[in-house]
Amino acid sequence: MFKNKAPLYVMVFGSLFGATISFAKLGALNGLDPLTLVFWQMLIGGILLWLTAKVLSQPVRTDIRHTRYYLIAGLLGNAVPTTLAFMASVNIGAALTGLVYPLSPVFTFAFSLLIGIDKASPLKITGMISGLVGAFLIVLPPALDSTSDGTQNISAIWLGLAFLVPIFLGLGNIYRSMDWPTGTKPIPLASGMLIATSLLLLPVLLFSDAQVWPDFNNNIAITVFLGNIVISYVGFIFYFELQRIAAPVYFSQISYFITITTLIFGVLLFGESIKWYMIPSIVLIFAGLYLVSKKQN
After folding, report:
1. Domain extent at residue 164
2. Following DSSP, what letter does each residue of 79-94 receive, concatenated?
3. Please, are residues 14 and 246 in contact by the beta-carbon 8 Å criterion?
């Protein structure tokens, strides 16, 4: 049962989260600040998950044990990397910032080996390399283009901060798995983490130039706002269910499918052209998922 569900959950959440990134870009083009959007999609998505948990008689516990989990999981996996990514994208460009996300599985694997919760194997290493190469084939050409049209003087400090993003994502992947509160269902944990993330992001929102409540200029902005909330609500159900049944390294493969989805939406929403290297990239990513999942059986 596991081998059928886990790859599906990887692809579903990776696709859904990739969609929210693409829709956020569409929203930004229509006056919707990305930071404002992330704050509200986390908060409202978390509240909807809380209501769902209540209907299912799965209470969102607020004792010290669970609150600690919500805050640390939200800090490592969402609040810090999201804030760093937004800051870096402003200073070094979105293309270069996007380049660091495929490194998340690499750092997750390295940390797992360091603390002894995973072991290296030829299949897993080959799968990781395959997925990484596939993701880099997608994101590297645009990143190189961005440095050849007037942005050559990239700040080493901001580039270094961008590379902290996959480190925090890797730490978050491991923490959520290792510190999972015994007997707690995925939906309450998803709710608690999203609400905690929104609270952690609130100071960043208040001290930035972003509006606390979005100014909806047109129907596209409204559609993006509501769409991202619904996608976050549905997506994080799969996110925590995958975290429950999969090891951190396997879980981290979602990053590659986020990359694929942003590529597809780039073509569909923004008129970006399909390049020759995109097809082998996708094949390599799927091959990587297959090889890593073989080790899971």
Report:
1. 2-296
2. IHHHHHHHHHHHHH-H
3. no
**Whole-number Å distance between alpha carbons of 199 and 42:** 9
* Residue 178: burial class (beta carbons within 10 Å; 0-12, 13-18, 19+): exposed
Q: Which of 45, 29, 91 is nearest to 231 (CA)?
A: 45
Residue 247 contacts residue 10 (beta carbons within 8 Å): no
**Residue of 167, 190, 165, 166 lying closest to 180 (CA atoms):** 190
Per-residue model confidence as pLDDT tens digits over 202-234: 998 998 888 999 989 899 999 999 999 999 999
Residue 49 backbone class (left: φ over 0; alpha: ψ -120 to 50; beta: rest): alpha
Among 205, 295, 218, CA closest to 249: 295
How many Cβ atoms sit within 10 Å of the Cβ of residue 83?
Answer: 21
Q: How far apart are the first and last CA of the chain?
A: 10
pTM: 0.85
How much is the CA Rg of the chain, to the nearest whole Å? 18
- Closest of 114, 81, 121 to residue 255, by C-alpha: 81
Count of domains observed in the chain: 1
